[in-house]
Amino acid sequence: MAVYSIPPPYTPRKPSPPPRSRSLSILPTRQRNRSLSVRSKKESASTASAAPAPKHRFGLTSLRGTVQPELSKKLFKLIKGENHVISAYESAGRERIVIASQLSDWGEATGDDAVSDLSDKLGVLLAEIGEQEDTFASNLQDFRVILKHIRNTESSVQPSRDHKQKIYDEIQKLKYKEPASTKLVQLEQELVRAEAENLVAEAQLTNVTRQKLKEAFASHFAATIERAEKQIILARHGRRLLNLLDDTPVVPGDVRPAFEHVHQARQVLNDAEDDLRDWQPHLEDVGTSSHLLDRNAMPSASPMGGSSDRGERVERHERREHEEAIHPAHRKGSPNRTASAGSARVPYPISEAESPQMI
After folding, report:
1. Which of 79, 102, 110, 154 could crosslink 71 through cysteines, CB 3.0-4.6 Å?
2. Which residues contact 260 (CB under 8 A, 6 or more apart)?
């Protein structure tokens, strides 16, 4: 798979780690089998941070932006830019976990029991904050996938627009060069069909655009709220840990009392784990009418008969445009056409004396 060229200040996106569960992974589970510390991970973290960054390579996929239809170019750039944002959040999450490990190592090196224990517990909370960044980046991937539906629909509509415009340009060119050409009627009929097809495509585009735009940003903002509220939970428990550290000044020669809040610090992490596990989203509903669309992104049939008879409307539009494109002398029911005496209706009133039955 080709690698995109990512501008600074973003770092190249590394392969995503295996999927993580939404429950707290850095904090201990209910079995409490592992230590309430990030120090056991310092070797793996240092190894991960020392891994060489992948080299940028040029590939054919790098040219995709230059061959996008005009209609979908802007959204293509947006989706590609969002990929850089996701890489930035993933990088921030990894760096946060590294910083948490470094904080724990520094606290251990101070020789102060209180600083050592609390710095390690703070590192656990910081590492979980980094995990939340990674979860948020995963949710942003869902946001990009939904936006791609709009981009793909725009790409499919562009040929319909181009085809209609091409026929229109040919008609105008032919009218200028050969106004009496018999090919004009054929082109005008093709234009009617192209307009009918484009009418359906444009309706599908506006339906997909509105539906997927609401769905995409509803997902985006829900992920933002989840990340913010969970990080607030972790920050509040981090402040509880700070209250366990006695910062009363001492004079030279005095000895600090032993740290007596080891169990309380452990309980803070347990509370943080419980709060994250019990977290539930409380979101304002975003109304949608997507259930009224069929798989072709058109309104489905209504049980009350109020559905949009798309086929009939397109047929009426095509028939009306077709009749307008035909010369009046050749239209059905035209007064210039010769009508049979027995069956044709006379296009204007006649007197009793002129009636065929009276002759």
Report:
1. 154
2. none
Backbone angles phi, psi at 293, to 5 degrees: -100, 140
Distance between CA 199 and CA 300 in Å, rounded? 17
4-38: pLDDT as tens digits: 444 444 444 444 444 444 434 444 444 443 346 76
User: Would you say 165 and 120 are in contact if contact means Cβ atoms under 8 Å apart?
Assistant: no
Please tell me the pTM assigned to this model.
0.64
| Three-class DSSP category at 299 | strand
Distances (CA, A) of 334 to 14, 182, 327, 344, 347: 73, 20, 10, 11, 8
For the chain, which residues score pLDDT lower than 70?
1-36, 38-66, 290-298, 300-359
Dihedral angle, C-alpha 291, 293, 299, 305, nearest 10 °: -40
- 10 Å CB burial of residue 331 (0-12, 13-18, 19+) is middle
